[in-house]
Amino acid sequence: MEEIILSINGERFSARAGTSIMELADEQGIVIPRLCYHPELEPFGACRLCLVEDEKSGRMLASCVTPVAPNMSIVTDSPRVLRHRTNIVRLMMAEHPESCIVCNKGNRCQLRQIAANLGLGPTNLYATPNYRPLEQANPFIIRDLSKCILCGKCIRADHELVVTGAIDYNQRGFCARPATVHDRGLEESNCTFCGVCVSMCPTGALSTKHFGYAGTPERESPAICGFCGIGCSLLMGVSYDKVVEVNPAHDADSINGSTLCVRGHFAHDFLNTEERLLTPMIRKQGQLTVVSWDEAIDLAVRRLSDIKKDFGPQSIGFIGSSKCTNEENYLFQKIARVLLGTNHIDNSGSMAGREVLKSIDERIGGRWRTPLSMLEDAESILVLGADPCHSVPVAGYYLKRAFKKGIPLILADPRKTDLVPFSSLWFQTSPNSDADMVNCLAACLWKKFSHDSSYIERFTDGFDMYCDGLSSFNAERLCLSAGLEMTEMEKAVELLKGKKTAVVIGEGILRQDDAIQSVESILNLMLMTGSIGRVGGGLFVLAKENNQAGAWDMGAVPDALPGRRPLRDQGARKEWERTWGTGLSPDPGLHLFRMVEEMEKGNLKALYVMGENPLRSFPQRERVRAALERLDLLVVQDILSSEIAKMAEVLLPGAAFCEKSGSFTNMEGRIQSFTNVVPPPGQAKADWDILVRLAKQMDANMQANTLDRIRDEIARSVPMYSRLNGRRGAAWAQESDAKGLPSPMKEGDKIPFFPVLFAKQKALDDDYPFTALLGGTRYHLGSGTRTEHSDRLSYFNVGGAIEVSLEDGKKLNMRDGDRIRVESRYGALEREICVVKGMRQGLIFVPTGFNGNEALELLDLPASDKTCSLENRCEVKIIRLDQRNRP
Amino acid sequence: MEQKEIDWGVLSSIIDKHKNRKWSLIPLLQEVQEAFGYIPAPCIETIAEGLNIFSSQVQGVITFYAGFTQEPKGKYVVKVCRGTACHVKGGRSILRFMKKELDLEEGETDSDYRFTLETVACLGACFLAPAMMVNQTYYGKISPNKVANVLAQYKGKEVER
Known about the structure:
Strand content of chain A: 15-25%
Number of strands of chain A: 37
Largest sheet of chain B: 4 strands, mixed
Shape of chain B: elongated
Distance between the termini of chain B: 12 Å
Shape of chain A: globular
Distance between the termini of chain A: 71 Å
Radius of gyration of chain B: 18 Å
Strand order of the largest sheet of chain B: 2-1-3-4
Oligomer: heterodimer
Helix content of chain A: 25-40%
Order of helices and strands of chain B: HHHHEHHEEEH
Structural class of chain B: alpha+beta
Mean pLDDT of chain B: 89
Low-confidence stretches of chain A: none
Mean pLDDT of chain A: 90
Number of helices of chain A: 27
Largest interface: A-B, 18 and 15 residues
Helix content of chain B: 40-55%
Strand content of chain B: 5-15%
Radius of gyration of chain A: 29 Å
Number of helices of chain B: 7
Largest sheet of chain A: 7 strands, mixed
Low-confidence stretches of chain B: none
């Protein structure tokens, strides 16, 4: 790369060609004021505050958009520059309303800061404030466009980072302002309320709407978001030991950079809800009574030991949490396995298809933990059964950006998701036909000789057998059974031909009946095109909960020890027996749903639940409730007064993620350590602290009794986590290399192709002619326990209407707002509907997380011989209820 | 005359000509305006989908250019020049006369969508000052008398039909 020599303020620097003057100045620590520049956005040159002077030519240059040129002699603060800069700020201020005293941007206003630095007080100009009405109909963002300085950051963040396109400049000259389509309120536009524009806005034109508190936070501390599997870096604003504001950390190395989603930005209200548990309680004469920590822990330990003595260790079950930290889950399973001697431990992350992930793990090792940033280098992208714009929005941003960059993106989903406008091709597959679709695609590609022969030869086994499988069926028929046209398939082949493919899969794949088979067909396709373990391809599995991966890594599962070592592996067991100085049973414990069955049978006498609410996240809650009532002892450790907390005999108030220290492992395998931002409320304690107290009470010799010691023990004994050290910043799970790149394929690695199988055609059920798909929306996470307690989200009151296809709407004569009853073989629910374009006929979509997550009533509790995965679909019938509001 | 319903067939045939070509936005909008007389608001989403750009961007372009309008306009758009040359030659009295004659203020359209009265900064026909335009036709060296004649001509056209 060509180096260019120039001078800034008399000092000589060399810079790469193409660098802007501002970038060079920033690298060298030379301060140039700016309002419209942001390192993650394309330079725009709107505010002109970054003007500098080239002494040689005498020209004034906007340094953010001017590339360095040889022999420039730049001065950043000559009298001429300062005069111009001051005048620009004066003009901005003349147009700005004098409402600083009530503006909640306060001293963080960059216009104000720059004016102060220039020593600018009164402008001595005729003030022409551009008054605009305040827009604050939505509960998240206040728009006061009279304070807008037209820097365009909000618009560029919207277009370039989150790629939503809700706003753009409207009008011109003095009237120009950012506006939505038809200039309506944000709540009537396609705005997703990610709030990125708010955290970018240099003035008070966009600000967070606060409930209760309005003002500048006293301090800002870094944290890791505790909602979805992305694990965004946050900056939490704190006043009076309460989190009052959340912003992205703007950390270039973080996964989210300057972006966040509506949950990350606005859903943290739940931290300050009145429903928080503040004191330990035990049940006395049927009533939960406040007691001291010692008394509560004492009772829990005594009762657990009694039950162990009377009925044996197999009568005790533990449910850990995919929302708690690695350290807590490690300690939790250690208490279960070592101190009580049971393998009955699981966490709710297992419901989201852990069996499937396990099978991927067994076949291709850790090569599916891929950093999302690798999507930018993908040669082509295939998204299957995933709705990232709702489930894990930041992954959605990555995909949308990749498409905008020109990477071909093929989407297969029965619903018209928000990603459809960002796809080169959308396969509207019928549910449960993913395997057929992928096999058909593979066969077509193979016929076009679009396979990577050298990769296949070096790293795979059984390609001949696979080819036989592919040639054994009629592609057209398969295509039809997936509900697709052959012409679409040919278009897809044109897009994918000769390219490696990055594959993104979500709940739609992981939570179907034939998940493993679908995943195998996907892996086959990836092996054939040389897309596994290579830049340009990669498998991306979207995780719904923040520490789903970590809870599994830490062994909070019935069949694996920490480090994902299988319990039946004798070597692994021996190692852990040595580490812990105790014997371990080789028999896998009960998974979540089998625990329910054993409770019903009366075999499971005691249950310890940490950070989970089975009465909300399991199907068939009445059955679960009845099972829980049969327990002798129920210990609940949680942050909110949930349905299960009300049933507990011992109730221990824990801490939310920003009230404690620890680490989370996100879906990429990025281990992110954090320290607490605020103390837990009331007498509540960090969950690891509670567990340490409990362990000490059970065994005075317990070594791991501080967070550091727990961490040391993990880092020492779990090779994947050897880099865990508690320092802020990401460490990567060791199965990938230091930068988180997936371990490349090595010579000698041979991954076998899997037999080609076809999707089982389910016989149609005349009694239940519709298929209901269950899935999350961006306003609720998982079962919605925390998001429901968030004031702003519940004020926004998105109803969770059931989506019905246009055709079915017409056939049943239903319109938006009509109420229907949806009945499955197992349960029913009633809600409003909305008729949507692009939905497959015969399909309805039921958003989860609403009304106490009643959507799960439609599902059955999986039978004991089944895996722990919970399907996200079921057969239903629709009954029209009254049609009020009809003319 | 009633305001017409949007003819979606016409719209989609215009969009098809420009499909997926982002740079085609302005010619497309010009064609839409030609066909409908204005750019009806409900078209914006359809146009955006056709070109695969954001609806907000389409609206941004429409509102930026004075040449595009989201309001239905009259069949005859009268533009009176307010340039310096026209002003010196009595353009102001022409405008005043025009307002009285049409019973419209600047920027207004009459209720039966016949006439729209607009002013422009300069028509670029200073040698014909004072000047005005009706749709694509220039009228130079106008006087109130001539204006009355021209308007009568257009009003007459309406009566004939």
